[in-house]
Fold:
Amino acid sequence: MAQEGGPPFLLSLFMSLLMLSSLCGCHPRSPGSIRSMAAAGHVSNHTARKVSTIAAEVAGYADVAKQIIDLAVFGAAQNRSHSRLADFTDTIGNRVSGSHNLEMAIKYMYNAMAQDGLDVHLEPVKIPHWVRGKESAEMIAPRVKSLAILGLGSSVGTPPEGIEAEVLVVQSFEELKNRASEAIARIVVFNQPFVSYGETVAYRAYGASEAAKVGAVATLIRSITPFSINSPHTGLQDYQDGVKRIPSACITVEDAELMWRMAQRGQRIVVRLSMGAKTLPDADSFNTVAEITGWQHPEQVVLLSGHLDSWDVGQGAMDDGGGAMISWEALSLIKDLGLRPRRTLRTVLWTAEEQNGVGAQQYYNRHKVNMSNFDLVMESDLGTFAPVALQFTGSDAARKVMAEVVKLLAPINTTKLEAHGEGTDISPWLQAGVPGASLHVADSRYFWFHHSEGDTMSVQDPRDMNLCSALWAVVAYVVADLQDMLPR
Structure:
């Protein structure tokens, strides 16, 4: 159950930790660091160095990269990230923004990473607190049928007696516009076909406001997924300013198509909808930060990340427990091998990513003054299935460096570098010109489970997570230990 106030344990914990130093001198210097100590006082420029020189420097990390891969995939750390994720999600469950479960998740991860020997601290933020409440929907004409629904994040609720109205089924915003006169006092059902998540999600985000503009009293949105076993998929919706706010929920692909077929036959469809959703005052929360401090340039940072919050269904194992765990595991692997890079490795477990990345935006606002010291920002938030490639956004010169770095991943056959590093939480940094990377995985099944009750540990594969952890650790460590930062 969500609680209305802020998290008292975390507030007191944060205050007690505020004065602690994050410096750590417990890790020996790595072989790559020792080799280049002679150049420590010389700041060179990648643009002035030949590609062959950079390639030779990166190739010098082949042995270290293999050690990391062997530990993650075949050694003592094998399956560790999967086991950690199972313990975490089985203990905490789902973790929606503002909830008691999210508070407990932050406490859990703070303690776990501190016990792992990492330098851990919390950074306070304010986050939205939306509560689903009780909800139900039933088609009462032309026949009686229960409809599986999930209210959409930030939606208002219905009146206590619910809403009973005729249904207008449309397949696009254009059709809604053309049939605007039919939408007055109706519940609009959007039965839009799935094209891609990036394109089709507009119906979930803006469907309620578009329907309200033409007089609708509520919206039911076909779930944004290419595959369904009568499973509704939730997510955030976004009311437009100046437009009446009407209740909005997702329904299953099957029920959306059922009502479309009935409408095509000319049948009158009536639905009764009840939603107890409400938005409470913003809650106190934290981004959870763990570090291995750099031995030469501790102020310079390679950032790895995943988000700790989820929606209030399933376990949030895939979205984004896996990304959070491999971002912790990467630091564990480096620590276990006794490595300490030239720059600081910083794992950030974001809060409230599902609410448009508000936790990460506040982190950016706090740290952008030191933007020149952020070498690379990394985010894993599209699942931790078998890795296919590293996606990268940065200058041409930086891309040449990263193309050499991924060659070190030959033992796990993920040497491909693709364009377009992405992620909600790192997007402010990318827009500001900081190099960014994301994990491309074999994600064809991702949206089958996304934001649904199906997002559980059963989706996760331990070997896939081993491979993702190895990739994440090798890339982060090598970039953090190179003589130069990535060129902007």
